[in-house]
TrEMBL record:
This is L,D-transpeptidase family protein. CDD domains: YkuD_like. Residues 35-51, 401-415 have a biased composition (Low complexity). Coiled coil: none annotated. Residues 1-22 form the signal peptide. It comes from Micromonospora echinofusca.
Length: 428
């Protein structure tokens, strides 16, 4: 081979050899450390630890996995019966579909797998506690099944007595909400721990399905109490409906799917018994009810009312008030309710849903937190601060307007909670 031939071959070889510049690597290559991690066998640690006794019936199978992910969980009781359940979204634990039974042994077999297909299996056995005589904390889930709710419907759980601060994170981890389509949200607590609300940054999308489980039965809460029950419900979100009540004009504007469909004259609370200003949610609807205010500071009357829709625990309703039709649109004469004509009240009953947003503005007093389902009466940032565990920073309202029409900025109300009245309610 002559000299020119050798030079040509050398140039060709150099042209076909990849060259690395700076910190770049050849496409398709894998750092040595990453490759080693992927080929490392998976490992797994489980809780409760093997042989643990007196385990609460709210127990989950904790899974601490390295170099892999959970592929299968099998749990059986001491009679060989399979226990249904699902993994948490973050992969930290397997949650039984219902509370375990008292004073019974369980075995969990968990298999993990890595990206290379390697598997590892661990098992643990444990025994649940005997039925306890400790006091329970009563919980109430204000979200029924097989209903159609408005786009502002918060999932609400009430507690009696309230949950102490140090126990709220554990309780919150047992409050599950799933939405279809997916719309992530968070829980937020009232200061006294008597209520927790769940909502997303924006209003629910019409047609969504929301499934809730308050899995609190047997859950240790604080030093000496247990959760009382395991409750589930699944319901649908209907069309967007919202009401905007302006004290300055004494008018209610009714929006459906973002479009103004009617304006209704109203009479709100007189100066001695003013209506609350803020963002509320319709809580109940009654074709007929009785307001009995005997024993209340500003009450003392009993009156039958038609087409009543509750806004607060303190007894503020939208309802038919034929006795004040001459004042509606002009003068406030009620005991705090929004009075409308019989015709308009009947029409509203056919339009609204429990869970619809009602905004009242321009009255003498702000809405008190917890006086009704007040999850929307604060900004998203303030709402998220009420969560016991931290809320992801990327969970925030969409930059575009949500399904419900925009309303005035949320009122910054004082702290506290108005207790729920008897089911008959007050009003006027």
């Amino acid at each position: 081979m002559d000299k020119r031939r050798r030079i040509a071959l050398l140039v060709t070889t150099l042209a076909l050899t990849p060259v690395a510049f700076g910190g770049c690597t050849e496409r398709g290559s894998r750092p040595a450390g990453q490759a080693a991690a992927r080929s490392a066998p998976p490992t797994l640690a489980l809780t409760p630890a093997a042989g643990t006794r007196d385990v609460p019936i709210s127990a989950e199978i904790g899974t601490e996995v390295k170099n892999g992910r959970v592929a299968e969980v099998k749990v059986r009781d001491d009679k060989g019966r399979a226990v249904d359940g699902t993994m948490r979204e973050d992969g930290t634990a397997w949650v039984p579909a219902k509370p375990l039974e008292n004073k019974r042994s369980y075995r969990a077999d968990v298999t993990v797998k890595n990206d290379s297909g390697q598997t590892a299996t661990q098992n643990t056995t444990f025994t649940t506690m005997a039925k306890s005589d400790r006091q329970t904390i009563t919980s109430t889930l204000y979200f029924a099944g097989n209903r159609t709710y408005g786009t502002a419907m918060p999932v609400t759980v009430a507690f009696d007595p309230g949950i102490p601060k140090e126990a709220r994170a554990d309780v919150q981890r047992r409050l599950f909400v799933k939405t279809e389509p997916k719309q992530p949200g968070t829980w937020s607590w009232l200061d006294d721990g008597t209520q927790a609300y769940y909502r997303a940054p924006d209003f629910w999308r019409p047609g969504s399905t929301i499934s809730v489980r308050a899995a609190l039965e047997g859950l240790p809460i604080g030093k000496d109490r247990l959760g009382d029950a395991d409750r589930t419900a699944s319901s649908r979100i209907g069309n967007q409906v919202s009401l905007d009540i302006d004290n300055a004009t004494k008018q209610m504007s009714v929006f459906r799917d973002g479009r103004l469909v009617r304006r209704i004259p109203v009479s709100l609370g007189k100066p001695s018994t003013p209506s609350s200003s803020g963002k509320m949610v319709i809580m109940e609807k009654h074709e007929f009810t009785t307001f009995d205010t005997r024993g209340e500071p500003d009450g003392g009357y009993v009156v039958d009312v038609e087409d009543a829709q509750r806004l607060t625990w303190g007894g503020e309703f939208i309802h038919a008030a034929p006795w004040s039709e001459g004042d509606q649109g002009n003068t406030n004469v009620s005991h705090g309710c929004a009075n409308v004509s019989s015709v308009n009240a009947d029409w509203l009953m056919g339009v609204t849903q429990v869970g619809d947003l009602v905004t009242v503005r321009g009255t003498e007093v702000p809405l008190t937190p917890g006086n009704g389902w007040t999850a929307w009466n604060v900004s998203w940032e303030e709402f998220a601060r009420g969560s016991a565990p931290p809320v992801p920073a990327n969970l925030k309202p969409a930059p575009t307007p949500s399904a419900a029409p925009s309303a005035p900025a949320a009122v910054a109300p004082p702290t506290g909670r108005t207790p729920a009245p008897a089911s008959s309610g007050s009003g006027g």
